[in-house]
Amino acid sequence: MKRDAEIAKTMMEEQERVIKEESAAEDKRNEVKAQNYFDLEKQVEEPERKKQETYEQLLKEKLMIDEIVRKIYEEDQLEKQHKLEKMNATRRYIEEFQKEQALWRKKKREEMEEENRKIIEFAHIQQQREENRMAKIQENEEKRRQLQDALAQKLEEMLRQRDDLEQVRQELYQEEQAELHARKLKVSFRN
């Protein structure tokens, strides 16, 4: 932006200088014409025999001056053309620079958008992985709990069966003892 302002300032200064030079050249031409008219009027008052000679001399000088003015004009026009070409080149440079800046900004914006898209995509992948990991942990925890419940139930069943078996053994033992005692009593009564 600073460079654009400097280029614009240079173009304005160059344009002002061209206008001043054109004005100075126009003033010079007017001054020469005025001097010619003044000399011509002065010569009119001289004797008649010198009029033709003076007229021819003035005409020759006028032609010389016209040639000088023409050359000055052509040089001014050529300089104007060069300056105009330079200004056009400067304007094209500014336009090209602005175009390149716009393309650069567009490229950077696209790169930033792509980077943000990748970041969001990566965050989604990480979130999905975390959710899958937590789901796997919960699944394993549920399996572990179910296994513990199954083991606890099996252990409880085994303990119950052991108690039942022990109770049956006790009952059989008591029956055997009662039967043995009854036999002893019979033997005692017989004796």
UniProtKB/TrEMBL annotation:
Which InterPro entries does this chain map to? MNS1, TPH_dom
Keywords for the protein's UniProt record, in alphabetical order: Cell projection, Cilium, Coiled coil, Cytoplasm, Cytoskeleton, Flagellum, Meiosis, Nucleus
Residue ranges of domain Trichohyalin-plectin-homology in the record = 1-185
**Coiled-coil region(s) at which residues?**
94-178
Q: Gene Ontology terms, cellular component aspect?
A: motile cilium; nucleus; polymeric cytoskeletal fiber
Q: Does the keyword Transit peptide apply?
A: no
Superkingdom as given in the UniProt entry: Eukaryota
State where the protein is found.
Cytoplasm, Cytoskeleton, Flagellum axoneme; Nucleus
Q: Which GO terms describe its biological process?
A: cilium organization; meiotic cell cycle
Q: What is its main location?
A: cytoplasm
Q: What does the sequence similarity comment in the record state about its family?
A: Belongs to the MNS1 family.
PANTHER family the UniProt entry points to? MEIOSIS-SPECIFIC NUCLEAR STRUCTURAL PROTEIN 1
| General function of this protein | Microtubule inner protein (MIP) part of the dynein-decorated doublet microtubules (DMTs) in cilia axoneme, which is required for motile cilia beating. May play a role in the control of meiotic division and germ cell differentiation through regulation of pairing and recombination during meiosis. Required for sperm flagella assembly. May play a role in the assembly and function of the outer dynein arm-docking complex (ODA-DC). ODA-DC mediates outer dynein arms (ODA) binding onto the axonemal doublet microtubules.
Per UniProt, subunit arrangement is: Able to form oligomers. Microtubule inner protein component of sperm flagellar doublet microtubules. Interacts with ODAD1. Interacts with BBOF1.
Q: What is this protein called?
A: Meiosis-specific nuclear structural protein 1
